[in-house]
Design goal:
It is built from five helices and five strands. With 129 residues, it is α/β, with parallel strands linked by helices. A five-stranded parallel beta sheet has the order 3-2-1-4-5, sandwiched between helices. The structure holds cytidine-5'-triphosphate (CTP).
């Protein structure tokens, strides 16, 4: 059984999120998703996501393409998570192209194309206008 792992915030769940999770799942047989905590987001962007980590997790774990979820507490722990969850493949969007190549010693690393013209940041901007 091929185990796939991916990571993200998945705030204001949108079609780009669904498409990457579907394609990540198609890389193997079991999909594990690390959902970044509110604290991790705050430390990166000095603001909290719109949806709480609990709600973001509930949405992601309800998807039929997702088999398991956990909280990503620190960006520094990716390698540990890959080992802990016995991942064979790490999938990331190509906004991260090349940035996770260091994990090629632990598992296969695949960057999938982002869905054009949509992002959580853009949705927030449009609503604000
Ligand atoms: N993603 C995607 N296509 C998009 C938006 C996101 O494939 N249009 C992917 C990202 O590459 C990542 C995952 O979805 O692998 C989670 O991304 P996240 O950063 O949570 O979503 P964004 O919409 O990019 O949010 P933000 O604008 O805050 O960066």
């Amino acid at each position: 059984m091929k185990r796939v792992i991916t990571f993200g915030t998945f705030d204001l769940f949108h079609i780009g999120h669904l498409r990457i999770l579907e394609r990540a799942r198609a890389q193997g047989d079991y999909l594990i998703v690390g959902i970044s905590t509110d604290a991790l987001n705050f430390s990166k962007k000095q603001k909290n996501p719109i949806y709480t980590e609990k709600d973001r997790m509930r949405i992601i774990e309800s998807l039929k393409v997702v088999d398991e979820v956990f909280y990503e507490e620190s960006l520094e722990l990716k390698g540990e998570y890959i080992k802990k969850y016995n991942a064979d493949v790490l999938v990331m969007g190509n906004d991260w192209e090349g940035r996770f190549d260091e994990f090629k010693s632990l598992c296969e690393v695949i960057y999938l194309e982002r869905t054009p013209s949509i992002s959580t940041t853009e949705i927030i901007e449009i609503i604000k206008e």
